[in-house]
Structure formats: C-alpha cells, structure tokens
Design brief:
This protein is α+β, with helices and mostly antiparallel strands. The protein is built from 3 helices and 10 strands. The strands form 2 sheets. It has a 7-stranded antiparallel β-sheet with strand order 4-5-6-10-9-8-7, with helices on both faces. Strands 1-2-3 form a 3-stranded antiparallel β-sheet, with no helix packed on it.
Length: 181
C-alpha cells in the first residue's frame, strides 16, 4: 500500500484522502483481484474499462479497486465498486454527494445523466476544497445489477481539458461484460 506520508505533498496526498473516504463507504478492493490493462477481475466485481493513457501509472491502493496517477499532470484516478449493499433505492445524486461529505466549498460546475454500459449514470464535474486546498473533480456514479461503481478524477483546478477527455474515454469504455469485445 502506498502511504500518504511517503508521498510528496500535492494532489496525490489529497486524492488519497478521497480514496480513503470511499473505503469508509464500503468500496474495498479484494486481495485476489487482477488487472490486465483492460479487464479487472475481483471477488465481488468484474469489469472492462476504456483505454488507459500512456501517462497513467497504476498505484497499488488497498482502498480502491483501481487507482492511477499521472505525475506529469499531477492527477489521480480512482475506480471503486461494491455489490449488495442496499443502494438500489439511493439516487445517483445522493451517492455522488456522499463521496464529498468531508469537502468544503463544493461548487458543481456541470452535472448530467448519461448512458453507461446500458444504464443511467451520473457525471458530475465540481470544484471543492480538502483541508483548504482546491481541487477539481470529475465523478461518474453508476448502479448496475445490485452494484454501485464510482470513477473519480482528482486534479488541480487548472487541469487541461484533454486530461478530462481521456478520463471520460476511460470511463465510457466501462462494461460489466469481461469477454472479448
């Protein structure tokens, strides 16, 4: 596990806090999981994701199914999922809000529903502060087959649009079908 105290200060230490908050919500990675660069296989969830940019490096994170860092752009990506936790009745907006319970000065920039893997998902772009440090987030939340998935992009407020577009492409390539495309 990468520990925040061993990391250089900046986005990663603040991004790590969000990953830990996600774990408090029950999004925990399984020790017997595998990731081959396209398909994640774990004890509770299996899925395929979209393309990974060459600048993303995988992080070994106990508190996320998948985590990546783009050091050149100083950003962090987290993917989490949980199943069978009675979240079928919780609206996507509430699930998104729960991810930011420890943040201040939250400002939703855009929010809208999209189709993701044949289901309705919520994409939210917002600015928020963690420990007084401003960050920009892009979050997708999806409920499918008694599971909830969240995809989190954490960056400096000045991050370029291309970085967000790469994240969107990674997420929109998501599928619970893990066979050959």
């Amino acid at each position: 596990m990468v520990r925040p105290t061993l990391m250089k200060p900046g986005i990663l230490s603040h991004g790590w806090r969000l990953i830990q908050v996600s774990a408090l919500l029950g999004f925990v990675a399984c020790a017997s999981s595998t990731w081959d660069g396209q398909v994640y296989r774990g004890e509770a969830v299996n899925f395929r994701a979209g393309p990974i940019p060459a600048t993303w490096r995988r992080l070994d994170a106990d508190d996320a199914l998948l985590a990546f860092r783009d050091a050149a752009r100083d950003l962090v990506i987290s993917v989490n999922g949980r199943c069978g936790k009675d979240s079928d009745d919780v609206p996507l907006e509430a699930l998104t809000q729960h991810l930011f319970v420890y943040f201040t000065d939250r400002q939703i920039m855009t929010q809208g529903k999209i189709s993701l893997d044949g289901r309705e998902a919520l994409r939210t772009e917002l600015l928020a502060k963690l420990d007084g440090v401003p960050r920009q987030f892009v979050v997708f939340v999806l409920k499918k087959n008694s599971c909830v998935y969240d995809f989190i992009f954490i960056a400096r407020p000045s991050v370029d649009a291309r970085a967000k577009a790469e994240f969107d492409q990674f997420v929109t390539g998501f599928s619970t079908s893990t066979g050959h495309p």
